[in-house]
Fold this protein.
Amino acid sequence: MLLLHSSQQKQVFNDEDTLNLPANYAVGWMKTLDDEKLISTMTIPGTHDSMALHGGPLAKCQAWSPENQLKAGIRYFDLRVSGLGLIIMHGPICQFITLSSVLKKIRAFLDDFSKEIVLVRVKPVFPMKGKVPKLVENMIKNATDIWVKPSVPRIGEVRGKIVFVQKDSFKLGIILSETDQKGDYIVTDVKVKEEKIKKHLEEAAEQCSKGTGLSLSYSSGTSLPKSIKFLPNALAKEINPWLYDHLKEEFKKKPKPCFGIIAMDFPGFDLIQMVIKFNRPT
């Protein structure tokens, strides 16, 4: 299903696996950005549980393959990685792809679009989550195309590279500052969730204006385990049109705010492009 915003006829929600790009669409949206700009002062469209493509409505959070997410403009990947062969999971559900395979796909994209930067978060999860950091370190120890320092680079330093971001038990890459609090992903009232997202984006904008760290905010959520009222798909249908309108209003501000990473479920093409617009000079 491709959900069009009723007033603007914009693609704000998508749960179809095919990607239809506009004619003359430029995939490499980062090429015009200032090399001296810190990546912590960008607004970056991302996906929550980026490889959660399997498991039905309870578990599925995305529809597009990693290749299609990249083509549509996504530049942040949230990967829940187990210690069992570095297989990606969503909760107890295997997503039938490994971290190595996802990185290979991102590298192929960066070979074609060498001015782009792709941020990757590795979150160790069950089974054998304790093994994940060492396994990842061993896998990338000779890589020259992955940024693993905690310091925030300038755009020019990391073009054509994968930039790891870190939190909690995974200690490679830039330190993330999450605006969401524990349990914020559990949603039983859409209006309450909207207010939380607004608050989190305000916090992210304040941090982003200082350029000291990289903020991460989620628009995603589910009503589980409290109820089955809002599974990820159903919630995204409600939240994505609202998020588009909220960002459209924020874009009118002078100077334009920056928000760091915005991680979404089932984002439509035009919602992604709205996030990207915040990086363009006025």
